[in-house]
Amino acid sequence: MRLADKVIIVTGSCTGIGKAIAERCVAEGAKVIIHGLEQDLGEAVAAKLGSLKSVLHIEDLTAPDAPQHVVDVALQTFGRLDAVVNNAALVISSNIHTTDAAFLRKVLEVNTVAPLTLIKAALPHLSKNRGCVLNIGSVNAWSGEPNLLAYSISKGALMTMTRNLGDTLHRENGVRVNQINPGWVLTENEAQRKHEQGLPEDWYKAIPDVFAPAGRIIWPAEMAAAAIYWLADESGPISGQVVDLEQHPFMGRNPPKDASTLTPTTS
């Protein structure tokens, strides 16, 4: 198995992409710390994976001592720490008119500052085991949609952080840092968001080709499959890299003028 005996923190893993990554990590031989804010959903994930392979920690990562708490849970439960997956994020709509300083700071705290503080708390243990960090970003990091201003800014900052730490921590601590940028993924939260925006319950079954050449959008399990490569030793010395995972060229694309108004929120 590709992750045999590794201990991995996966933030935001009670639902969606994080949940899929946690499940795939266990399938590949790892033990995982499930993290999130939804106690009932987290307990369901932990029950599915089993107490020998997982432990649940519920806490807001923006709390001052939360990153250290998550690291301590890993060490106390499994005795080591090999990798951190920074997946937890606040996906929230805003534009230039609705984004004030307080709102932007809130989004940055969750999506950029919390991943940094968790890396700092985990670093001594990752260094000991020549471990790695995988940040889960978004294709919105490159520019972003008009109604995702604060979110896009936070993911752009995360991408710069990945490249910076991917260089410095690899040289100084032997810790690799990489990032995947998911495109439009059919998570539970995304399905609910679009339904709340007025789309029918089965909106994802009829997405225009311009957004989904494959006839569907990406599944969380497909993101999880990609994540395993970066968490496994087979990715070798590669560090400081950001990979976009979408089903069409994201930058420089020219969609038809009659493209549907149905736009992705993405991860």
Automatic annotation (TrEMBL):
Q: Which Gene3D superfamilies match?
A: NAD(P)-binding Rossmann-like Domain
Ranges in coiled-coil conformation: none
- Cite the entry's keywords alphabetically: Oxidoreductase
Region (Disordered) residue spans: 248-267
The answer to whether UniProt assigns keyword ATP-binding to this entry is no
As recorded in UniProt, its EC number(s) are 1.1.1.53
Matching entries from InterPro entries are given as: NAD(P)-bd_dom_sf, Sc_DH/Rdtase_CS, SDR_fam
Family of this protein: Belongs to the short-chain dehydrogenases/reductases (SDR) family.
Q: PANTHER family under this entry?
A: EG:BACR7A4.14 PROTEIN-RELATED (PTHR43975:SF2), ZGC:101858 (PTHR43975)
Annotated protein name in UniProt: 3-alpha(Or 20-beta)-hydroxysteroid dehydrogenase
Species for this entry: Adhaeribacter pallidiroseus
